UniProtKB/TrEMBL annotation:
Cross-referenced SMART domains: AAA
Protein origin, superkingdom: Bacteria
Gene3D superfamilies: P-loop containing nucleotide triphosphate hydrolases (3.40.50.300)
Lineage: Bacteria, Pseudomonadati, Pseudomonadota, Alphaproteobacteria, Rhodobacterales
Domain ABC transporter: 21-269
One of the record's GO molecular function terms: ATP hydrolysis activity
UniProt keyword annotations, A-Z: ATP-binding, Nucleotide-binding, Transport
Name of this protein: Amino acid/amide ABC transporter ATP-binding protein 1 (HAAT family)
Alphabetized Pfam families for the sequence: ABC_tran (PF00005), BCA_ABC_TP_C (PF12399)
Annotated source species: Rhodovulum marinum
GO cellular component: plasma membrane
Amino acid sequence: MKDTVEPYVTEDGRTIGGVLMELKHITLKFGGVVAIKDISFDIREGEIRAIIGPNGAGKSSMLNVISGFYTPTEGEVWFEGKKRPQMRPYKVAQQGIARTFQNIALFSGMSTLDNIMTGRITHMSAGLFSQAAWWGKAEREETANREAVEKIIDFLEIQHIRKTPVGRLPYGLQKRVELGRALAAEPRLLLLDEPMAGMNVEEKEDMSRFILDVNDEFGTTIVLIEHDMGVVMDLSDRVVVMDYGKKIGDGPPEEVRANPDVIEAYLGVSHD
Ligand SMILES: Nc1ncnc2c1ncn2[C@@H]1O[C@H](COP(=O)(O)OP(=O)(O)OP(=O)(O)O)[C@@H](O)[C@H]1O
Ligand SMILES: [Mg+2]
């Protein structure tokens, strides 16, 4: 791990680029509840950045700030070297940021294919009128979108469920479809809120492999909220640790695991 903003290669040969996003002194309040208290950290191009912490620590809130779903009460979000103005979430999505949710948010009556297709929305041009006016263009766009979706279906090994309504799929596969929908946007920055929660060991292994492959093959930068420390250790380059809205640790996994504040937050061990 380096403090410099220059790209570097990790011990296991992974290339980490410059700073892609910087969160500066973020505070987020809901009425009297302070969900995030003055937190700063950066996200570097090509890395897998984990956010961990006990329940209610503010992890999902932080992801919602990154995705533009929440506007921080104080602080600034810098993306690609520029301060991000207050922006609606769909505008943020158009900048190449996609996400999955802690609770699955798919259209349960729609097929796997159609659900993933909804992820292409940022790649579709202005709606029905332009489609009616430009038949040829709309057709080309439709073909390109279909091809992109087919590639994702192959990549995630879900050909066998392409026509199945997602509400009928087991939980682990629904999570995989949701990842597919996020990938359909071809994001530069992918935000995953507990992609492995509620999964069995085998499903977790599959999901871990897909996350690593996305990062490897497409160079996608990933921010991952995860409770399973084994998974965090295996996947992440750097970890931010939150507790009661504060940042209590930030660094490579082995370093934060040895951090006494982190141990205390997880185990409730006191130092006296
Ligand atoms: N929309 C909201 N309105 C009011 N309070 C909220 C809202 N969203 C989150 N909070 C509060 O902010 C704090 C942080 O919640 P958040 O969901 O970000 O935690 P988390 O770390 O993701 O927890 P978990 O591990 O349980 O998912 C909690 O006290 C929560 O009750
Ligand atoms: Mg959460």
